[in-house]
Amino acid sequence: MVYDGQCPFCANYVRLVRLQGTIGRLQLVDAREKPSAVNEAILDEIRRAGLDIDQGMVLKLDGQLYHGDEAMHRVALLSSRSGIFNRLNYWVFRSPRRARLLYPPLRSIRNIVIKGLGREPIDNLGRDSDASS
Q1: Helix-helix angle 84-93:96-116, to 10 degrees
Q2: Model pTM?
């Protein structure tokens, strides 16, 4: 799972969601950290797929990339139901329709908070650097 480690919502989400017992070992990749060779490969794959990490976390599962609301939906289906957070996450995001409806406002709040904290976008697709040249 690739996420924004400087986003308080994203960092807490990956800390709280319990997938370990349901799918085995989950590799977490903070898109802002200096990547290892393995992490660089997944970040390159995400770039080639045109997925903007600033617009949603990415889950790679069985060779398939899921972005934003689709990633949240898949995580909800795969997570355990132990704990209040995981039960709530399952209830909210188990429906693809509900995930599509709720994800955009949640992403907007995330982007406002990131900007309010003075953090730069991840810009994994190089759009900001293209605009400034």
Answers
A1: 120
A2: 0.86
